[in-house]
Amino acid sequence: MAPEAGDKSGAAARLYCGMGNHFLKTPSTIIRDPKMLRFARYINTELRYDTKICLNCFKILGQLYKFKAVEDHSVGS
Ligand SMILES: [Zn+2]
C-alpha cells in the first residue's frame, strides 16, 4: 500500500494565522522579536515563537506594537 501523497500539501495550506481566526495567507512570516512576540500574546495567548502569521497581519501588529511602545515610554517618564 502506497502512502497518500496528496495529504501533506493540503494540510499545510490550511494552517491558521497566529493573529486571528482566518487561514494563513502567503506571504507569511514569524515574529522574530521576542518583545513583539510577548506583545502579540496579549492578542493571542496561544502564539508561539514559531507560529506563522500573514505578512499583512505582521505589519498591522508592528504598527500596534510601535504605538504601544510610544505609550509606555511617555508613561514611564
Ligand atoms: Zn493573518
Structure characterization notes:
The protein is mostly helical and 77 residues long. It has one domain (12-76). It has 3 helices and 2 strands. It has helices spanning 6-13, 34-40, 55-76; strands at 28-30, 52-54. The protein has a two-stranded antiparallel ribbon with strand order 1-2. The longest helix has 22 residues, at 55-76. It starts with 5 loop residues before the first helix and ends with a helix. Bound molecules: zinc ion. The site of zinc ion has 7 residues, from strand 2. Zinc ion binds next to strand 2.
Short structural summary:
The protein has 77 residues and is mostly helical. Helices cover 48% and strands 8% of the residues. Residues 17, 19-20, 22, 53-54, 57 line the site of zinc ion.
List the keywords.
binds zinc ion; mainly alpha; 77 residues
Helical residues, percent:
40-55%
E-strand count: 2
Q: Any low-confidence stretches, pLDDT <50, length ≥5?
A: 5-11
On the 0-100 scale, what is the average pLDDT?
Answer: 83
Write the layout of secondary structure elements.
Layout: H1 6-13, E1 28-30, H2 34-40, E2 52-54, H3 55-76
Antiparallel strand pairs: 1-2
Zinc ion is lined by residues 17, 19-20, 22, 53-54, 57.
